[in-house]
């Protein structure tokens, strides 16, 4: 049986967890948390990174930091995970869903201006499969209309747009270390702050609305309740696990890219014969090999292919069902039809991609997909 995903352990996770446990300090914001945060600050070239218990939590922090109030409008793609929207719904925002691009599932920047009203507060972009949205155009629109930009960079570790790391371009960004992502700690995330105006408050919100961090740095002589907040910081056990993964980022990425490229090579002829579409990486963007997907020509064909592979012990899975048509949101949706989103919801299929995917297993996946399309 070839699974869709298999979380990879580098070998040092339990060693570092043991170190954290033996240090006697296993609550949050300890040695491993600081090491991981410093790593991201350096890698992304940003002033502040705060580990969180999930990307969902980091997105919720973004919504609090932006002071989203009931009635504020937030624009985001409909082709995304529920957390992108929930974080803002929880603050009472009205979500304005945008369509995707035709060449990849990212938000279609050319449709944004039409969605902006005087209530719009922010644009949330999602770098689908770790491939950058068209950030120059998006930042320009945001600056013109004085809007904030949040990057949902859940899938976008170690990926770049015109040489800039994803997560360092918008005002705020959120990454995920859920076990389905390139680098994982079971559950986990990081909030990235690129705008000085949010730095001080981010730490307060992170520490339950207190100025505890400033107190321990000796910046204030007592600490107390100064703002809203919650318990967004992970324990040292999670941070220790994450550190073992981060130490191996380059190794993990090299292997994932190799697997991604092998899929792309192996399936190329199906694209040549117009039977499927393969992912396209725009010129200014890098590929971080978060995901390999193909686009079938219809929902029926995709369903048949999933079944065909399943019968051969291969797990391939579809992805997002559009949020604007979800049971939760459908009655609230009053916008236009989002054709590109519908198309990705119906036809996108993700293939097994994980560090320990064996060469012969991948060959088998490719062989079976080719066989399916030869028969049909
Ligand atoms: C995985 C993912 C999330 C949620 O991440 P968690 O760490 O599980 O909260 C949010 N947005 C996108 C686009 C994701 O892929």
Automatic annotation (TrEMBL):
InterPro entries: DegT/StrS_aminotransferase, PyrdxlP-dep_Trfase, PyrdxlP-dep_Trfase_major, WecE-like. Keywords: Aminotransferase, Pyridoxal phosphate, Transferase. GO terms for molecular function: dTDP-4-amino-4,6-dideoxygalactose transaminase activity. It is an enzyme of class 2 (transferase). Pfam families: DegT_DnrJ_EryC1. Its EC number is 2.6.1.59. Coiled coil: none annotated. Belongs to the DegT/DnrJ/EryC1 family. NCBIfam families: ECA_wecE, PRK11706.1. This is dTDP-4-amino-4,6-dideoxygalactose transaminase. It comes from Pseudofulvibacter geojedonensis. The lineage of its organism: Bacteria, Pseudomonadati, Bacteroidota, Flavobacteriia, Flavobacteriales. The gene is rffA.
């Amino acid at each position: 049986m070839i699974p869709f995903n298999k979380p990879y352990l580098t070998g040092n996770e339990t060693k570092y967890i043991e170190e954290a446990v033996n240090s006697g300090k296993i609550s949050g914001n300890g040695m491993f948390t600081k090491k991981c945060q410093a790593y991201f600050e350096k890698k992304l070239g940003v002033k502040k990174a705060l580990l969180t218990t999930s990307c969902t939590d980091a997105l919720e922090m973004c919504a609090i930091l932006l002071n989203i109030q009931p009635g504020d409008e937030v624009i985001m793609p409909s082709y995304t995970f529920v957390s992108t929207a929930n974080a803002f719904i929880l603050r009472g925002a009205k979500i304005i869903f945008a369509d995707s691009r035709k060449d990849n599932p990212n938000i279609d920047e050319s449709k944004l201006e039409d969605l902006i009203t005087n209530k719009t507060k922010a644009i949330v972009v999602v770098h689908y499969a770790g491939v950058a949205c068209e950030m120059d155009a998006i930042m320009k629109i945001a600056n013109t209309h004085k809007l904030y930009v949040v990057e949902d960079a859940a899938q976008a570790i170690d990926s770049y747009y015109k040489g800039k790391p994803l997560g360092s371009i918008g005002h705020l960004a959120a990454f995920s270390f859920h076990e389905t992502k390139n680098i994982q700690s079971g559950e986990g995330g990081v909030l990235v702050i690129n705008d000085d105006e949010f730095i001080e408050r981010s730490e307060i919100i992170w520490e339950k609305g207190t100025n505890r961090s400033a107190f321990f740095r000796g910046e204030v002589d007592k600490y107390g309740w100064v703002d809203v907040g919650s318990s967004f910081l992970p324990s040292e056990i999670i941070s220790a696990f994450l550190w073992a993964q981060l130490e191996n980022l380059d190794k993990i990425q090299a292997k994932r890219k190799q697997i991604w490229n092998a899929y792309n090579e192996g399936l190329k002829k199906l694209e040549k014969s117009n039977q499927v579409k393969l992912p396209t990486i725009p010129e200014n963007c890098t590929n971080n090999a978060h995901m390999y997907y193909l686009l079938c020509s219809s929902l029926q064909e995709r369903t048949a292919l999933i079944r065909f592979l399943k019968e051969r012990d291969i797990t391939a899975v579809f992805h997002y069902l559009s949020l604007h048509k979800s049971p939760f949101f459908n009655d609230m949706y009053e916008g236009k039809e989002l054709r590109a989103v519908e198309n990705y919801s119906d036809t996108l299929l993700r293939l097994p991609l994980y560090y320990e995917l064996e060469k012969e297993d991948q060959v088998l996946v490719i062989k079976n997909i080719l066989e399916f399309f030869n028969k049909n």
